[in-house]
Design a protein that fits this description.
A hairpin with a 4-residue loop joins strand 13 and strand 14. The N and C termini lie far apart (40 Å). This protein has ten helices and 14 strands. Helices cover 31% and strands 26% of the residues. It binds 7-O-phosphono-alpha-L-galacto-hept-2-ulopyranose. The site of 7-O-phosphono-alpha-L-galacto-hept-2-ulopyranose (VTB) has 11 residues, from strand 8.
Length: 322
């Protein structure tokens, strides 16, 4: 295995998320999850074939959504040459948002050397806390079990804010009813979103955004993908498996996975050589979406490189007339 990746693979990966966003953006507000998903996934697979790496998808979404796609767990991606990489891909993070014409969908891909990413198949759900680099040193594993008020007080203290100044990203799900009540009772504000906890995690890990932290249970694939970005940004994420059905609990136990283990993003991605790219599909708090005009289209992307801690914002204009 190559241990040092001289090139910034992230600059190749951003072409993948751009292509996916350009394809998915056409489906904004059209109501078809299948159509949007198919178009974005085809674009991802097509462009990943041009990237020089022997990649393998470490964790796909199939266990949680019960639908297979070319980016399922263990699928090879890339042109098969070059460094051996673990890869996570979400052609559309926020499919429901996108097809309902709401804001916030992004396309993401992350890569790190083979064997470095946590791959807890057949787990589908995990608990997550995400904070930025200022709060990172203070985040302790106890935060996952402590009352939300305790964690919020800690984050407020480090950020030199009042608890009522904080905004917490939480997915709008019945499983979060108690968590939402706790956050409100503590006096903080809740940004309830129907989808998109990868974007939520990136917003929480980026200092100075509209989101101070992310709390709650979301997909494992989204968690591993988010961990790539959070680690590359120097933030901190804590994660722990959180099965949502007796079947998932039994499968996770049968696979010998530890339900009590709390992992940091450094354990979820055990390498600094992380490459991550995200492109906006529809306008959102993290990235502007795709604009189309007369055979041309523009995209806004974010490219992260873990080794150097570089964050690049890339605006691109594409000639899409053919
Ligand atoms: C989240 C969210 C995703 O899945 O991870 C969620 O960020 C978790 O699953 O955008 P449930 O929908 O079953 O709660 C998505 O909503 C869809 O991938």
């Amino acid at each position: 295995m190559e241990t040092h990746l001289e090139r910034n693979l992230g600059l190749e990966l951003v072409r993948v998320t751009e292509a996916s966003a350009l394809a998915a953006g056409r489906w904004m507000g059209l109501g078809s999850r299948e159509g949007a998903g198919r178009a974005a996934t085809e674009a991802v697979i097509r462009t990943l074939r041009t990237v020089s790496m022997a990649g393998v998808i470490v964790v796909g979404e199939e266990t949680r959504i019960g639908v297979h796609s070319p980016v399922d767990t263990n699928q090879p991606v890339g042109n098969g040459q070059g460094p051996e990489m673990d890869v996570v891909v979400d052609p559309i993070d926020g499919t429901t948002l996108l097809v309902q014409g709401r804001s916030g969908a992004i396309s993401v891909v992350g890569a790190a050397p083979r064997g470095s990413m946590w791959a807890p198949a057949p787990a589908a759900y995990m608990e997550k806390i995400v904070v930025d680099r200022d709060v990172a040193p203070a985040l302790v594993p106890e935060c996952l079990d402590a009352p939300a008020a305790w964690t919020l007080a800690l984050v407020a203290r480090i950020k030199k804010k009042e608890v009522r100044d904080l905004v917490v990203f939480v997915l709008d799900r019945p499983r979060h009813r108690h968590l939402i009540e706790e956050i409100r009772a503590a006096g903080a504000r809740v940004a309830l979103r129907t989808d998109g906890d990868i974007a939520g995690a990136i917003l929480a890990a980026l200092p100075g955004t509209s989101i101070d932290l992310l709390l709650g249970i979301g997909g494992v694939a989204e968690g591993v993908t988010a961990a790539c970005a959070v680690r590359a940004l120097g933030g901190c994420m804590l994660g722990r498996l959180a099965p949502q059905s007796p079947e998932e609990r039994a499968a996770v136990a049968a696979a010998g996975l530890d339900l009590d283990r709390i992992l940091t993003c450094k354990e979820i991605v055990r390498s600094d050589e992380i490459f991550f790219a995200a492109t906006g599909i529809a306008d959102g708090p993290l990235l502007d979406g795709v604009r189309y005009q007369s055979g041309r289209a523009s995209t806004h992307s974010l490219v992260l490189r873990g080794e150097t801690g570089t964050l690049r914002r890339i605006y691109a204009e594409h000639n899409i007339s053919d």
